[in-house]
Amino acid sequence: MTSPEPLHSRAIDSGKIERIAISTGGGDAPGLNAVIRAATRAAHRRGWEVIGIRDGFNGIMAPEEYPAGGTITLTESAVRGIGHLGGTILGTTNRGNPTRFPITDSNGSVRYEDRSVELLDRLGDLGVQALISVGGDGSLGIAHHLCETAANTNHAVQIIGVPKTIDNDLDKTTSTFGFDTAVSFASESIDRLFTTAESHGRIMVVEVMGRYAGWIAVSAGIASGAHAILIPEIPYDLEWVAQTIRTRDASGAKYSVVVVAEGAAPIGGEMTVLEHVEGAAKRLGGVGEKVAAALGQLTGKETRTVVLGHLLRGGSPTAFDRLLGLRFGAAAIRAIEEGRTGIMVALAPPTVEYVPLIEATHRQKLVPLDSDTMLTGRDLGICFGDQLP
Predict the structure, then answer these.
(1) Which of 97, 224, 317, 388 could pair with 190 as two cysteines, CB 3.0-4.6 Å apart?
(2) Do 322 and 224 lie in a common domain?
(3) d(CA 263, CA 284)
(4) Mean of per-residue pLDDT scores for the chain
(5) What is the pLDDT of residue 280?
(6) What would the mean pLDDT of 152-170 be, rounded to a whole number?
(7) What pLDDT, on the 0 to 100 scale, is given for residue 124?
């Protein structure tokens, strides 16, 4: 008896494609509109209609919340001139997971249901034969679940994932769009803080996004010449950072810049959480203030904290992220045309490849501590909170 054919290698008759749908879920990222534009234009060249789903899958699961309709028709004019814009014209959300959809009972209690089959049915009612799901690990995990459900319930819909996160923590792709824009803005911000830190002889602590991975902190921190960088991959001891600052003071450099990833944690401690939200990922943040206060006590120096936060998500995408978004959007359409399903498009320079969704979502891509970038940082004398540089 032969084993079942893997989902990602199954062929679906793409000759039947007439209409596709695009969904953007999770946090926004510069480059989302470039994906929408490329996918829409490439689909139109093949004679396919394109609809966009509002706010992740909410436009399908809760259409009553949208007086103008939970979906929009993506025409040529609808996507004209949007490639340089930040955010997403479809809207996005971190809530409304159709595989764990919140239902409020009459007594006010909340329970969760898997409404994947209902979502697939509604896509079928709309005449959608293929879905492009653009998102991070959460959204792509949902896409994988939908693909499995479709295979088990004989729903003939192709599901293609497009990786999106400013955190760059998705496995199986060299980079995700939004990351380059976030690093560029973080680097510019850190550059600006150097001048005020030096003028006042202060310690400036800069907190950046990244959740459980330190890609933004490492890339922007090293590029800007930070003196210490704290990341989730390396539990820190602030005494090492304080000693680095004291050494700088003794040499005549009376200021220091410390970059902290929001998910960084001390040795034996836990990440700093701002808020626990039922049915959503916990919100990290606040570690910058803790680090600044502790370094002030350890060194006796004046400290200030800057939290870049959602500034890293906003604004126009860099040329790299625009091009990557366009490449991903066009590649998703080619994958549909080839009859693919259950795959994610992934950057593997110099090409864009297809990888199974299950392989892209089963683990996070963390900063390799033996990578050339990390070795460069240590050779430059940057303290990572685990030893003196």
Answers:
(1) 224
(2) no
(3) 7
(4) 92
(5) 56
(6) 95
(7) 95
Of 28, 167, 169, 180, which is the active-site residue?
Answer: 167
Q: Please report, for the domain that includes residue 138, its CATH number.
A: 3.40.50.450
Q: What are the distances in angstroms from CA 384 to CA 172, 248, 260?
A: 26, 15, 10
Q: Count of CB atoms within 10 A of residue 65's CB? A: 12
What's the CA angle centered on 234, arms 190 and 173, to 5 degrees?
75
- Overall domain count for the chain: 2
pLDDT (average), residues 210-229: 97
Residue 167 falls in the annotated catalytic set: yes
Does residue 146 lie in a domain region? yes
Quick: pLDDT tens for 320-336. 999 999 999 999 999 99
Q: Could you count the other beta carbons within 10 Å of the beta carbon of residue 153?
A: 11
Domain membership of residue 219 (yes or no) is yes
* 272 and 322 belong to one structural domain: no
Are 225 and 196 members of one domain?
A: yes
In contact, 271 and 284? CB cutoff 8 Å: yes
Domain residue limits at 278: 183-313+368-379
Same domain, 243 and 327: no
Q: Indicate the residue type of 99.
A: T
- Nearest CA to 377 out of 270, 205, 171, 231 is that of 231
Average pLDDT over residues 131-146: 94
Dig out the tokens for 308 from the structure: 């870049």
The whole-number average pLDDT for the span 165-193 is: 96
Instruction: Report yes or no: 312 and 216 within 8 Å, Cβ to Cβ.
Output: yes
Residue 361 located in a structural domain: no
Please compute the mean of the pLDDT values over residues 98-118 and round it to a whole number.
87
Nearest to 224 by CA among 232, 234, 216: 216
